[in-house]
Structures are given as C-alpha cells and as structure tokens.
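Researcher: Structure prediction, please.
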Amino acid sequence: MFNAYLILDKRSLTKKGHPIKIYISGKGQKTYIATRQYSDKKYWKNGKLLKGHPTYAYTQNRIRKMEIRTIERLSECDDMSFNEAIEYVKGSSQKNKETMLFEFWDVLVPEKKKMGRSTTPFEATRKQLENYMLEDDIAINDIDYEFLQGFIAHKKSENCNEGGVNYYLKTLRTVYLEAQRRSSLNIKSGNPFTGLIKTGQRKPPVTLNKNQFLGLMAFEPNKSTTKANKEKMTRKRDLFLFQIYIGGHDFIEVANLRWEDIREGRIKFYRYKNSSRNSIYVDNALLPKAKEIIKKYGTEDNERVFSFIPDPVNKNTYDHYRSNTNGALKVVADSIGVPRLSTKSPRYIFRSWAGEAEADILATMQIQGHKPGGMTFVYQGRLSDKLVDKTLKKVIKWAVKE
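Model: Predicted structure follows.
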C-alpha cells in the first residue's frame, strides 16, 4: 500500500521559491518526486496551494494533475517493492514523455532562421513565458485555456497593453499550431487560443496634405532647444523626408542603405523584408531632394550611407535610436497639427499621395517594393524604368514642386 500527496519542501529555497514535491511513502520507505513548480510559504497551507499565488490557476492545475497521475500509477503497484513502484511511476512517465514547449522551440527557431525569417518575436515571447511559468518547461499538451488566461493576467499585472499581450499570444500560437501539424509529436487537436486574441480596431494610417507637408519641410525646432539637439531633430526630420522621396520606404531600409546601392543616379536594394514572397527588388530614380539629403548627411567614410544610425544587426541600439526618432517626430507632428508621425508613416503617406495623384498602381507597387498578388499578375514582369520614374516624380510633385 502506497501513499502520495503534495508537500512544500521548506528545506530548500530557490529564486523561484520553495519547490512543490510529491511525497511518496510505503513499505517502510519514502521518497519525493519533483513537480517543477514553486511557491512561497505564505501561499501554502495545510498541504494546499492558496489562491493568492501569482500563477495559482496554472500551478494548481499542474500539481493536481501530477498528484492524481502518481496516485493512479501507484494503485497498480501493490505487488511491487518500493523501489520497483517508484521506477514504475517514473518509467511510465518517461515512456509517455510528452513534447515539451521549449524543447520544440529550440527546433523551430533554427528552422525559421534557415528560411531567413525573423526570430525576434520568438525570442521576446520565450523570455516572457519563462518569467511567467517559474519552471524550466511545460508539455505543449498542457497549454490550455487556464494556462493562457493566467499568462494574460500576469502580463496585464505588469501593465502590458492589449497589443503587447496579443503579440506574445500570437507568437505562442504559431509555435503551438506548428507542433500540432507534426503528427509524430502527438499534440492534441483543438485550439486553446480561440477567443483570447483580441482584434482591436486598426488606427487609420497617417497621411499629410500639401499644407501639412510644406509645414513639415519648414519645421524649425523650438528656440529654447540647444544647438546640438536642434541639429539632431532637423536631421531626423530630413531622414523622414528622405524616406518619402525614395518612394515611401521603411526606416530600416535607410539604416541598411549602402553606397554600393546608389549608382547611375538610382537607388537599388532588396527590402529588408525580402524573405516575404511579396517583396521585390527596388530600383528607383534618386530625385534631387533625396540627393541633397545624402550630400548633407552621408557618411562617406563608412560603407553605410547613414552610419550614424546604429546598424540594425545590433537590435537593441537600433531599436533605441528608432524609438528616439519616433519621439522627435511626435514633436514635429504636434507642431504642424498632425495626430502622429513615426518612422513607419512614409509608406502610408507615399501610397496615399499616389492615390490622390492618380498614379499608376502597378508602378507605385514596384516603387514601394510590393509584388501584386493574384493569378492575373503571375505573368507580370517588371515595368520599365521610364514608367516607374515618371510615377515617382508625379507623386512627389503632387505634394511639392520638385
């Protein structure tokens, strides 16, 4: 006859708290099995986890499942010795070992890298999950509604907004569904994420009318601003204009721009998102206003045209610089009466102007590095430089005489 129940091992203390274990006794012997769950003493009373525990729903669910499973296994061991029974319980667990989340994560992320996909969301999401779980890993089949609700509550308690929560949930869902597609992993059917990822209303894209754009070009920092900060803010405004003048491209394209990408009076590069099937080679005319900005700020002693922007390879420093740039653009936006401007805005602005100027749609897409979708366009080759350059000039001239 064997007995098994949960205990809090107060003899041992880790950064995560005291370990919760399953105490097993019988036939004059005793041992412990780790649950890989933890708790402070204040959240444990009379052999039970208290609801004040930071991850109560998830942790309670995990330890109860393990306790019940252990008791069920031991009920089959009456004719065994103590050591045989323990080996049976542990051996059965190993035999039916489930696919663990982070073990699969370590398989999936290298696959993404080999395909040229960004792994940033996976790295960020894993860090958040590790902070939430307070354990080394979790079986993918144990990711259920309670686990996800606990994670949501945990992030919101850290003042994470809806967008941030959705970002982590979507990434975790990607991992979960990818594991589910691999039949050898025996992941249960169903989608525990259903109804949990909120789809808020998308903010309308920012655009600028002609007067606002003139205001942007004429912008002067506040008189109280120091000379050094005036120069930095003006430079950030000019780079924003440069993004528009080259066809409404992302800030990261400007950061990655090499001198070798500028030749024969043109600017030529593959977009940073060139792993996407909808991204194509950009080959646009370099307009006079864009040339002026390159001449003013270009760093000829470096292979990158604007090397004062941190290399995007150094993600943290690049993200910090881009965040500061967005802060400066907010000041500019307030001064010209625009709700908001960011380093992403030039793509929306240029596309909006193209519509207002009645520019050729296919040429506009090629300027911005987009490939039209649909079977009709499968056979569509690149448009001529003459048509594309004419379209680019037409769009810019719509807003300001070039």
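Model: Confidence is low (pLDDT under 50) at residues 274-278.
Researcher: Thanks, that helps.
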